[in-house]
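Exercise 7. Predict the joint structure of the components listed below.
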Amino acid sequence: MSISNLPYRLSLGPLQFHWPKQVMLDFYRDIESTNVDIVYLGETVCSKRREFGYGDWMDVAERLLDSGKEVVLSTLALVEARSELGYMKRQCDNEQFMVEANDMSAVRMLGGDTAFVGGATLNIQNQDSLKVLIDQGLVRWVAPHEMSASVMTAVAANSADEIECEVFGWGRMPMAYSARCYTTRALDIPKDQCKNCCIQYENGLMLSTRDDEEFLVINGIQTMSAKTTCLAREFQSGEHGADILRINPQALGTNSIIELLDQLRNKSVNATAVTDEMAKFAPDGLCNGYWHGAPGMDYCDDAAIL
Amino acid sequence: MDLVCPAGNLPSLKAAVDNGANSVYLGFRDETNARHFAGLNFKDQQIETGVRYAHERGVQVFVAINTYPQPDNITQWQRAVDRAAELGVDALILADLGIMEYARSNWPDLRLHLSVQGSATTSDAIDFYAEKFDIRRAVLPRVLSVRQVAALIEKCETPVEVFGFGSLCVMVEGRCYLSSYVTGQGPNTFGACSPAQFVRWTETESNLETRVNDVLIDRFGPDEHAGYPTICKGRFQVNGETGYAIEAPTSLNVLPILPELMRIGVAAIKIEGRQRSPAYVAQVTSVFRQAIDACKQNPDDFIANDAWLARLQSLSEGSQTTLGAYNRGWQ
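Solution:
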């Protein structure tokens, strides 16, 4: 699928947080009228989050499809239980939507002859690994979040033209997954009796250093960056070879972020103005270090290196 | 059930072999392995000596090439595979798909293991590697409960190795960015977590502070033991409370559940700690050798004896041990 005259497409990544059902329904209803091109749907963090059943996801998927979006079903990143594999199998066997495989379990289930998206957690760090997965059916890969622009460009340059590359460009960055739930740990309740307590933290739970620096965000079994990744300046043009820029959902401002990045790719606004606007939706600051080969938490705004 | 022990250098390798390891694992002196620390690991010549020493005593040698190469350095990882193969080691422990493909096509007879860095937590994921690259063993990330390990083994034809003792990664290995987020260098591509050159210890009037690239990881009073500032083992504030929000400094120890691991069909127990001293390796290997032998002889009456536990405790981080994710309650 190609969209004329635009340097890249915009995608909405899978929802990382646990939101009530009605909030999710309203959120995705609002997405229908945005200019985002691709929407990734599904629970990728914790299988105990069941506000949406499989049928709810499929209903939303249908509506988004009707509103002109490409829809991809995302699978769980850390898979531990047999029931989780069962759910994943259902996703992989669906005949309507492409699947984003976030674990090798899903890659295997897809069987080798189904086109799929390779998620960031597959750790595709070089062209040889990418090639193995292309032979397995991969048509699009999401660069690991810790990958720099120069490495991404080198990997993409060594793969066939029709293989698409997607880059995480906005949101608190998913950075680690664990068997342990840090939300229940913070609240001092057993994981098995969690009662979905993470639902009360719509953008995750802040973890600060002892000298009061906002450092990480706890999101159940996932750990995220407190800072928000922002690659607006870096995506003024399409020269870096990425085909898709990903925005992850957040409780407030997702539609504004989509609109701002859409204006940016249409060249109707400049990157500095867009970044200043976007920063208003990042309460704990911006980061883009990985993209520049620096620590992920850094923010590089030196015009010379962009 | 085999005992797989760490060797950060030749004296550690000998200590492991002499104290009853069935296999030892080691790495080259560069970022091709996940313990890329200054002064650690092997030159080719030392591997040759080590392989001879181990083989003469019936012990196998595995080489970990378990980090992820990037486009400009793939050949360095490929050469590591070639060197290990030429040195006559018994298996390679790999994580990267491209390197597995390379090893399989260029060294078809070489035995391959899937590293913990490959993040495979299901039989489907392991089967993928087995079908594609004929891996003969998979090392499991430290995220599954004993019941989940048992369910996996039941479904999976590939033998499984689990961690038995040592530093505890609480995040799924291969997918943790905490170190690279703070320093730019992490386990996946650089082979180290919270690398030493970013660590700073600062004495204030009443405290000792540990920082990684200026981020405060912990602050210790005069009576407290200050541990190495691994990011996930720091003390932080959440909801107004200060504490070990992720995990306290502690070591994994499976001794209390050894019979269970044996019963469910775990093929090998891995001891973490290539960065540890030969004396440490000798002691941990010796305790686990005795324990595994006792357990094999009489699994029903096996009790982790107090002397073993005391010795392991004294070798543990923060002098504490845990069953980690094996125990559902820990999660």
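Discussion. The mean pLDDT of chain B is 96.
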